[in-house]
Specification:
By secondary structure, this protein is α+β, with helices and mostly antiparallel strands. The chain has helices at residues 26-41, 126-139, 150-172, and strands at residues 46-48, 58-61, 71-81, 85-90, 100-105, 107-113, 119-125. A hairpin with a 5-residue loop joins strand 6 and strand 7. The structure holds nickel (II) ion (NI). The site of nickel (II) ion has 5 residues, from helix 2.
Length: 173
C-alpha cells in the first residue's frame, strides 16, 4: 500500500477524460487500495483516479460515519437520476480549503464493477449520492468549482496557486 500524490486545481491534468477499464487485474486492485489509503489519510469521502493522475474509470468512496465502509467503483454508470434536485456544500481533495454549494440530483441509481470485477448496483441518496456524482464528474475531467461563477472560479484559482507555492516552499525548507 502507498499514498499517492493528489493533483491540485487548476492542474490541467484534472481535465483529462478517463478511459474505461477493460480488465480488473491485480494492478487495478492495487490502484484501488492505494487510492483508498490516500483518501483515508487525507480525510476525504471520495477520490477519483483522475485526481492521482491515472486516467481510468475508477472511484473509491467511504461515506460512512465510522469510515469503515470502503467502496470501489470501476466504470461507474448512472442508471437513473431523480428529477428532484438537492443543493449541498461540497469540497474536494484537489481544491483544499474551498467549500461551496452545488446542485445535484437528490437520488441516483448506480451500476459499477467492484474490486472483484463483478458488477453491482446500488441506490444512493444524501452524501453518497452527492459523492458519486462529484467523483464521476472527475472522470469526465470536471472539477466541482466549474459549477461556480467565473468570478468565484478565478478567485479560487489564484488562491490555489498561492497555496501550492506556499506548501512547496514549506516542504523545501
Ligand atoms: Ni473532488
Amino acid at each position: 500500500m502507498a499514498q499517492l500524490p493528489i493533483l491540485r486545481y487548476p492542474d490541467p491534468r484534472l481535465h483529462t477524460v478517463a478511459q474505461a477499464i477493460t480488465v480488473v487485474d491485480d494492478a487495478v486492485r492495487q490502484l484501488a487500495d492505494d487510492m483508498l489509503e490516500t483518501m483515508y489519510a487525507a480525510e476525504g469521502v471520495g477520490l477519483a483516479a483522475t485526481q492521482v493522475d491515472v486516467h481510468r474509470q475508477l472511484i473509491v468512496m467511504d461515506t460512512s460515519e465510522e469510515r469503515d465502509q470502503p467502496m470501489v467503483l470501476i466504470n461507474p454508470e448512472i442508471l437513473w437520476a431523480s428529477d428532484e434536485m438537492h443543493v449541498g456544500e461540497e469540497g474536494c481533495l484537489s481544491v483544499p480549503t474551498i467549500y461551496d454549494e452545488v446542485r445535484r440530483h437528490a437520488r441516483v441509481k448506480v451500476r459499477a464493477l467492484g474490486r472483484d470485477g463483478e458488477p453491482y448496483e446500488f441506490d444512493a441518496e444524501g452524501l453518497t449520492s452527492v459523492c458519486v456524482q462529484h467523483e464521476m464528474d472527475h472522470l469526465r475531467g470536471k472539477v466541482f468549482v466549474e459549477y461556480l461563477s467565473l468570478l468565484k472560479r478565478e478567485r479560487i484559482k489564484t488562491k490555489m496557486v498561492k497555496k501550492t507555492r506556499e506548501d512547496q516552499a514549506r516542504r523545501s525548507r
